[in-house]
Design brief:
Blueprint: H1 7-10, H2 27-30, H3 36-43, E1 59-62, H4 77-90, E2 100-103, H5 107-110, E3 115-120, H6 128-140, E4 143-148, H7 165-177, E5 182-185, E6 214-218, E7 221-227, H8 231-236, H9 238-241, H10 243-262
Parallel strand pairs: 1-2, 1-3, 3-4, 4-7
Antiparallel strand pairs: 5-6, 6-7
Helix pairs in contact: 4-10
Length: 263
């Protein structure tokens, strides 16, 4: 039987070590001059009071995709680091600027992280045990942030009608792993879109098919956030979508992380 704890308590289960993959920060160029953090606080939609100095960690989920693809999950790790630097720079949170990996085959590895980021271009191919691990992780208080890497390194997509393999596969998987939960498109007034930055149009759409953001909700708690829009490429480099859209990508990543840590 799952032991349910608050996510704030779960966030204190911190991992140590892991390979560091540092990159040049996008933050000073994109955010400092505009003081967007101050604008966000003045607008009244918040700076969630996380405990500064209580170091948290970010984990990337390792999993297989169809056709035995064991590397699709790992594209652009420096994008994660850029987002972490953004969150540390503009909020009161402290996240280790280190890229950690949690194998979906190990619940113990997954349970070290309050949030796991899951990213791929192709459809995830999970074993029954891995599905059980993901269910247990979420019911214990963990949070899954899953996003479609629309134009990744594997070039699975053959045209605009096929630009959502990962999204469609994960939508089906999330509905199966916790059938008693609901998985639905999040309304634009959902608090995740105003947790720190105000995003009145919801999930910023970068590329692929604009399904909107979906959430897995159980007992009124958001367990997982699923995006089809590839904001992660915006975290990785300004060159993908340009500076203005890159800001939007970093904003939604910040909001999702802070929402997960404070709800």
């Amino acid at each position: 039987m799952s032991k349910r704890v608050s996510r704030r308590d779960f966030a204190r289960m911190m991992a140590v070590g892991g390979a560091s993959l540092f990159s040049a920060s996008l933050i000073s160029k994109l955010f400092a001059a505009e003081n967007l953090a101050g604008d966000a606080r003045r607008a009244g939609f918040g700076d969630p009071q996380l405990e500064k100095g209580s170091l948290s960690t970010w984990g990337r989920l390792k999993f297989r995709c169809v056709n035995g693809d064991g590397t699709d999950w790992s594209v652009h790790p420096y994008g994660d680091i850029n987002l972490i630097q953004q969150i540390n720079d503009v909020t009161t949170s402290s996240i280790s600027e280190t890229w950690h990996v949690a194998d979906i085959g190990s619940l113990d590895e997954m349970a070290k992280f309050p949030l796991l980021f899951m990213h791929a271009e192709n459809t995830a191919d999970l074993t029954p045990q891995e599905v059980r691990n993901l269910r247990e992780y979420l019911l214990r208080g963990g949070f899954l942030y899953a996003e479609d890497c629309v134009m990744g390194k594997c070039h699975h997509h053959q045209g605009p009608g096929n630009w959502d393999f990962f999204f469609r596969g994960m939508l089906k998987t999330l509905r199966q792993i916790i059938p008693e939960a609901t998985c639905e498109r999040l309304p634009l007034d959902h608090p995740i879109f105003s947790t720190y930055f105000d995003l009145p149009r919801g999930q910023p759409h970068m590329q692929g098919i604009a399904h909107g953001a979906f959430g897995l909700i159980h007992n009124k708690r958001l367990l997982a956030y699923l995006s089809p829009s590839d904001a992660h490429c915006g975290w990785a480099s300004e060159s993908f979508f340009g500076p203005e859209k890159t800001k939007e990508c970093l904003k939604i990543g910040t909001n999702v992380y802070l929402y997960a840590m404070t709800h």
